[in-house]
Specification:
By secondary structure, the protein is of the alpha/beta class. It has helices spanning about 1-25, 75-80, 105-115, 135-145, 170-175, 180-185, 190-200, 210-215, 225-235, 240-245, 270-280, 295, 300-315, and strands spanning about 35-40, 45-50, 55-60, 80-85, 125-130, 150-155, 255-260, 285.
Length: about 325
Amino acid sequence: MRRAAFGCAVLLAVVTTASFTYNAVTAGRAARPQGLRYIQAADIRTRYRTWGTTGSPIVLVHGAFEQVDTWSRLAPLLARDHRVYALDLTGDGYSQRRGPYTVDHFTRQLLGFLNAMHLGGPGERPLLVGHSSGAAVVAEAALRAPGRIGSVMLLDGDALDTGAGPPAALEYLLIDPYRTSLLRIGLRTDWLIRSVYDAQCGPACPRLDAAGLDQWRRPLQVPGAEGALWSMLGQGVPGIPASQVARLAALHIPKSVVFGAQDDVFSKNTPQQTARRIGAPSPTLIPRARHLTMISSPHEVAAAVEALAGARLAVPQSGAGAGRQ
């Protein structure tokens, strides 16, 4: 037993030394891509993109570990008839990292973005699309400022605070320097990134080339990204209570729920339950699609967004109050 204990101590010392050394060698952070556009949204310097110059506004809000470029297959389709906007929520992409990484903070950033882009007034009330955990952000934004929102789509997300996330014990097991080493090794492993992407996106998605790998990898390698990641993992998947989500049913704006039919992040009953909870029509299920429907099935998602935009035009815009911000 003494030999075993001594051997474990030596192994731990070797691994720890190797980890510190690897972290020092890989301490350099990636540069942000050139040509990014920024605007001040509430208290966050926010990266964003726009597509299209005419038509009603659509604002796309990504989920966890995604960013503006996640919408690059869907947004041009919508831009044929709409002005399309997308932003990087703080903690992801290339926006300024500023916690806390909560639905409350994300929502204040989103409403600040609407202010900065002069959206939300008469004739400029946007259709909000929230993907995955972004569904909670657009739901909360609609509840806080109902008079500024034209319609809401929950895409591959139920907006619920379910407590999902890494086990609490993981934060005690994955401590520095080991967690930093594991993260950096994982991000440098093309096979691992492709495996996660394929599992979430499915066979209909384009294979990740070098540019695609960089799109998913680089945002986690820029300054501040690692600290934000550990903070977000510690808080779990962003969401709001079921009672709060159910308040959407009382809002007199068009709502819709769209899911990949093969999305295994949620149960088979989630789309129907979500639609009932928020007072939306029966959900749209996209055949053979998984969790990243805007990548695997952009034409089908665009058709669902257009249907919601049409429903919005059929509903008279009330002068509801702007709500709290």
